Amino acid sequence: MTMTGVHAAMQAWLERTVPDDSDPEATLAYRWFGHVRAVLEAESDYLVLMRIETEPARRAQGEASAVLAWLTDCCDRHGVTLLGQANADDGSGLSQQALMAWYARHGFQVDDTHQGQPLVWYPHRPVS
User: Fold this and answer.
1) Residue 124 φ then ψ, to 5°
2) Pick from 59, 79, 58: which is nearest to 2 by CA?
3) Looking at residues 98-107, what average pLDDT do you find?
4) For 33-74, what is each residue's pLDDT tens digit?
5) Its pTM surpasses 0.85
6) What is each CA distance from 128 to 13, 46, 107, 125, in whole angstroms?
7) Which residues contact 96 (CB under 8 A, 6 or more apart)?
8) Most buried among 45, 48, 73, 114, by the most CB within 10 A?
9) What angle separates helix 96-105 from helix 63-78, to the nearest 10 degrees?
10) From the CB of residue 81, how many other CB atoms can be counted at a distance below 10 Å?
């Protein structure tokens, strides 16, 4: 896997999404994908889905699942591993257990060997 794959996958994400400029003081670079906003960061040889949130009125309609499916397909096309941070921040969205189950339904596996919040990773990618 090369930086080219990560760069290409991140470029596809940037082209498909629009910046969330609602909070100029925000420390995370949220981007909108329809009614879902997310933070995706590029590391040297993988991408990290830092946050994913659906507008409250649009929850439970499969929109975040559709975004995640698009993102995993994009990572597969570019041979990039996708990590996800699985930490529920507040009571307005999924609980921690429900969030972990949501990632699992989308082919992610839990890696709780790290200190802090568990990470999940999407292992299905083409062989380089």
Assistant:
1) -85, 100
2) 79
3) 83
4) 999 999 999 987 889 998 888 888 888 888 999 999 999 999
5) no
6) 21, 14, 20, 9
7) 86, 87, 88
8) 48
9) 50
10) 19
